[in-house]
Amino acid sequence: MSFARYRSGGIGMRICVRAGLAAFVIWSTAPVVWLVLSSLLDQMALIARPPDFAAHNFTIGNFATVMGSAAALWRSIFNSLLVALFSTSIALALGAPAAYALARLAVPRANAIAFLILATQMLPGIAIAIPLFIAISRLGMIDNLVSLGLVYLSFNLPIVIWILRGFFLAIPTGLERAAAVDGAGILQTFWHIVLPISLPPLGAAAVFAFVEAWNEFFFALILTRQSAQTVPLVIAQFAGQYQTVFGQMMAAAVISVAPVILLAILFKDQIVRGFADGMMKG
Questions:
Q1: Per the UniProt record, which residue ranges are transmembrane (predicted)?
Q2: 157, 229, 242, 274: which sits with the fewest CB atoms below 10 Å from its CB?
């Protein structure tokens, strides 16, 4: 539905659109609200059927316990931060030039190459889990942050290339032609002309890659043991054999998602602009 059609529509159409948007917002934010409420309830209130949301059951004891005694959680947050920054920075450093080459240089079958790059995301992780584990174990890099970061890079890099290629295709060629007239080469044009106007899609791609690496669970489960464990693994450990400490698990989850939410709030404009510009022609 176009904006002009929405403006020219009647009251019924506007009510339907706003009701749909409200339903979408409620549907999207309900899990976050439930997560926060659960982190503030004691164990007995959480396991009641239905959960007891009486005022006297709310407490910050779950956060005090997690922050005071779960040293593994803080180590895992640090590990997740290192791995996410490592994979994101390399994905941008390699993905931006690759995307520009596919968008602007005379690369044979550039569209087919771009599609094949994106098609790597369609391969389920379980299909490569065993050979990947064997290869990394033979290299002696199990429970290693570098190997985990390289694995995350392998599925972040295609998305970064796809997002940035769409944006580079949308850039008017007149800017690059003017730079060529002034004697600038391909690398100079890319570094001094294209990159400075590509900050929104670069920011969007960076946030997407960071969140993907931060939330990843499956490969972290099979490639780490103790020292390189990431946040999702430590949160899962609150589910024991005989009892699941739901309140502390939810509190740990709130602590772990706080950096991602803060990142999204700080860069919301860049994310919206970047995905809008990058996906239009991608």
A1: 21-41, 53-74, 81-100, 112-136, 148-170, 190-211, 218-239, 245-267
A2: 242
Q: How many angstroms separate the most distant Cα atoms in the chain?
A: 73
Looking at every residue in the chain, the average pLDDT score rounds to: 83
User: Tell me: the pLDDT tens digits for 21-33?
Assistant: 899 889 988 888 8
Compute how many other C-beta atoms are within 10 angstroms of the C-beta atom of residue 273.
16
Which residues lie below 8 Å from residue 228, measured CB to CB, with a gap of 6+?
A: 79, 143, 144, 145, 148
Is a pLDDT exceeding 90 seen at residue 178? no
CA pair distance 145, 124, nearest whole angstrom? 22
Can you read off the two tokens belonging to residue 60?
């910050």
Give residue for tokens 């103790």.
226
Q: Tell me: the pLDDT tens digits for 89-135?
A: 999 999 999 999 998 888 888 888 888 888 888 888 888 899 999 99
DSSP codes of every residue in 203-236: HHHHHHHHHHHHH--HHHHHH--STT--HHHHHH
Token pair for 45: 């209130």
The alpha-carbon radius of gyration of the chain (Å, integer) is 23
Of the candidates 165, 175, 164, the residue with the CA atom closest to the CA atom of residue 202: 164
